[in-house]
Write a structure and sequence with these properties.
The protein contains 2 helices and 24 strands. The protein is about 10% helix and about 35% strand.
Amino acid sequence: MLKYSCLCDLQAISEKGYVKRMKPDTFNLQKRGTIGKSVGKLRVNDAMSDFVVCRSHDHILYFSDKGIVYSSRAYKIPECTRSAAGTPLVQILSLSDGERITSIIPVSEFPEDQYLLMLTVNGYIKKVSMNVFSAIRSTGIIAIQLVPGDELRWVRCCTNDDLVAMASQNGYVILSSCDKIRALSRNTRGGVAMRLKEGDKMASVDIIPAAMREDLERALEDPANNKGSGPWLLFISESGHGKRVPLSSFNILPLNRVGLIGSKFSEEEGHLAAVFVVGFSQAEDGESDEQVVLVSQSGTVNRIKVRDISIQSRYARGVILMRLEYAGKIQSASLISAMEAEADDEQTVTAEDEAAAGVLVASQ
């Protein structure tokens, strides 16, 4: 039987500050191009904000737009069904008036050699040692200093051996080394991540693990023999389109550069919604084993196999992953690794076995 500390959960947060915890099998795998399934009731003028995969006993770090971080155990968020409205975050966290949670990070431990990398909407970046966040008071602590008009939007776990992939709303991408990002204290602003063009903002960030970095560096040395092969960057647009682009299509650059075009969009397609590094978990045929969960503004969810998403060039539009129709835009996306998906399947099977055993006992 699967231990409770290993159980896999989904946490969803709305822009108006409602949170719910659900099981991943709440949303079955679907083919790309489908409408998806509703995540449940949303208040008037509310929309989904973030959606993450976690373990029941993880510490969940909640980062706000004002640069404050709060902490709670995952199991303290009430588990509910897909149709439930959720719990107000103000009942769990000491949020100030108007403060919004913009990023959620599940953490199982706080080692000194790992960092939390933070990126703001206006393109400022820094990393802070993970152990700094091992004891967070109930009223929260400062994670990053912000200037007026900027907000903390993305937080990721990293080590100095990793690479970071950053993308802007207009589709520009920079790959850079995490060891080039200075480790700073909490009460600092950080440096410039990307030189943004007028009207552009940051859209997403993801980490390329050290093991995948070695594969990437080999592919960059011999791009002709690695055309189309993984790992890849998965691009997801606000209009529900997506594509995979080989990481070998991008050079490793210093920070504070414009970057390379990773995806182009028409006015009707909006902007880039999310970028993920995929292909770290691969099947025997060399294809990705991961799954991506897409959430629209109206709360519709679609769970898709990454291997079903086409591999295309940096300038291609992509294929339809989710038909939005009246669901607005893609609001958030999360990646589920093969290990987490397998744990979800085992958890479902275990529950079914236990239910069957209960029926047998009851009938005897």
